[in-house]
Amino acid sequence: MELTKRQQDILDGKEGDVKAKVMKTLVMYGETFGAPKMVDITGKYGHLVTSFGLSVMKPVYELMDTLLDGGAVSSQKFSVDPRPLEKCVPRNLLQDIFFKVMYSKQDDYDKQLKKLGIMSDDAYTCTCYMDEVGNIPNEGDILSWAESSAVVYANSVLGARCNRNSGILDLFGSIVGCVPYFGLLTDDGRKADWLVEIRTEKKPEAQLLGSAIGMKVMEQVPYVVGLDKYFSSLDDEAKAYLKDFGAATASNGAVGLYHIEGLTPEAVKEGRNLLRENYKVFVIDDETLENTEKNYPVIWKDRNATPKLAFIGCPHLSYAQLESWSERIKLALNANGRRKVAVKTVMTAAPAVMEKFKKSEKARKLISAGVILSHICPLMYMNNPQCASMPVITCSNKLRTYTSAKYYKEDELLEIITGGAR
Amino acid sequence: MTKKVFKGRVVVKGKASAEALVSKGGFNTLASYQHSLMFGDKTGKCSDQNNPELYKKAMAGKALCMPQTIGSTTGGLVLYCAASMSRQPACLLFSKEIDSLAAAGAILADVWTDNSMPTVDGLGDEFLEYVQTGDRITVEDDGSVIVER
């Protein structure tokens, strides 16, 4: 790999041994993929996936200390994934004890993040690209981000350029200010390997569609046709849909970039010219989605247990989604003759989004209906074995993938939490 | 006993000899290692409910054979933690070209820990079709992978 003088100097240890090791790691990473060079990061902010002070992740915190001791801090400010805990989220005594032990390193890790360069005390969310948070890359920006749902959103919806970097390497790139040039950073890496035709009777559930596509194409790039008819433009509704769709493609598969015909920036500009010569075709109809859902394992001890908790917001909800869910819950409660939700329900969004929403009348009504508004990571909550043994339901395919939470489509979940169905 | 040799590309150099553990589908690193890292299981029992081939099987010290890894971008960090805690697979063997997360994990373990995981990719679809859980695997530092049963 060809390095600039500055990059070579870092590798040679002129900025210290720790930075040299950071650069060595990035060079090895790039050489694995045939990267001819390192390119400068042009995005204003970074985004890290590691937000949790899990006591057993000691090696990560030791590594962070090594970086800090070696003067290897981030050259750009960054946001980070959500915190694992917040007092308002339901927990019993035993769960609380587990949380205290599990996340005993949280305060220490928060301090490390501050020293390393976090944007603010509130920059903890998987949806850092929300207006209220302000980590919004420009089209064409080169990024050193991790968090699969944020990377796929930045690439696909914002048109930025970022590989599916691992945790730790996200920070390494931000430290030296450059990343190896390969994969989704290149024009060729952004070509589509699959033409995915949507032939469903109505707008498919975002998280189910993403799951089916992710499982099929794995890490390849899909070009999706037949979805644009459900959206007039890349407005808030479309962005929220694509956020949830992308999170499912990335967690159920390994998708880092998708193109949606007529909607996402590169598809609008280049259309089907983005397809590789020998692209493969995947047709999705209602039966495909039904079969995908049917194959999800349910690992509850009692498959028919009554749900005790519901999570909505993995990845974190947008402001528009919070408003929309408020309306849907209100209408469903009215229809079912109830004033409060039948299942404890937690809705999650970025701290800045939630703060803004909490000032609204809709939020007040939602809270009085028994809904809990939080900024935690539901996945981190479910890591607690005392929580994992509870019957928890969700409309997030990402949460389903990593935890014991049972997946329901949004309308089904709505009926359950508002007492219209079990 | 039958013996078959496959040749791939060396990603992280090294020799290994271990029992094969095979995932024909994508290996979700976070989902697989989540519980064992969290609850101190030194055998690295797989906790990925979506992967029936590996679910509840011990991964530490095994020759992990797969097409590629999938899922969360904590993947590389998780492999790094597993290596730091000596719960890593003996080696990582990929039928396809290695993905960015697995590569990060293998390289982080190599550069930042004392527990390197020899890693070979591009072994081909035939490798994954042939190898079975329980086969004896020997990895040479030129990227040769010998499968014995």
Task: Describe the protein's architecture and organization.
- In chain A, 41% of the residues lie in helices and 14% in strands.
- Chain A has 3 domains: 5-185, Aconitase, domain 3 (2-Layer Sandwich); 189-294, no CATH class; 309-417, Aconitase, domain 3, CATH 3.30.499.10.
- In chain A, the strands form 4 sheets. In chain A, strands 11-10-9-12-13 form a 5-stranded parallel sheet.
- The longest helix of chain A has 17 residues, at 236-252.
- The N and C termini of chain A lie far apart (59 Å).
- Chain A is α/β, with parallel strands linked by helices and 422 residues long.
- Chain A contains 18 helices and 13 strands.
- With 149 residues, chain B is of the alpha/beta class.
- Chain B has a single domain (3-148), classed as Phosphohistidine domain (Glucose Oxidase, domain 1, 3-Layer(bba) Sandwich).
- In chain B, 26% of the residues lie in helices and 27% in strands.
- Chain B has helices at 29-38, 75-84, 100-112, 125-130; strands at 3-7, 9-12, 16-22, 27-28, 63-66, 69-70, 91-94, 119-121, 136-139, 144-148.
- An 8-stranded mixed sheet of chain B has the order 1-10-9-3-5-7-8-2. Chain B has a two-stranded parallel sheet with strand order 4-6.
- In chain B, strand 9 (136-139) and strand 10 (144-148) form a beta hairpin.
- In chain B, helix 1 (29-38) packs parallel to helix 2.
- The longest helix of chain B is centred in the last third of the chain and has 13 residues, at 100-112.
- The mean pLDDT of chain B is 94.
- Chains A and B meet through helix 2, helix 3 and helix 9 of A and helix 1, strand 6, helix 2 and helix 3 of B.
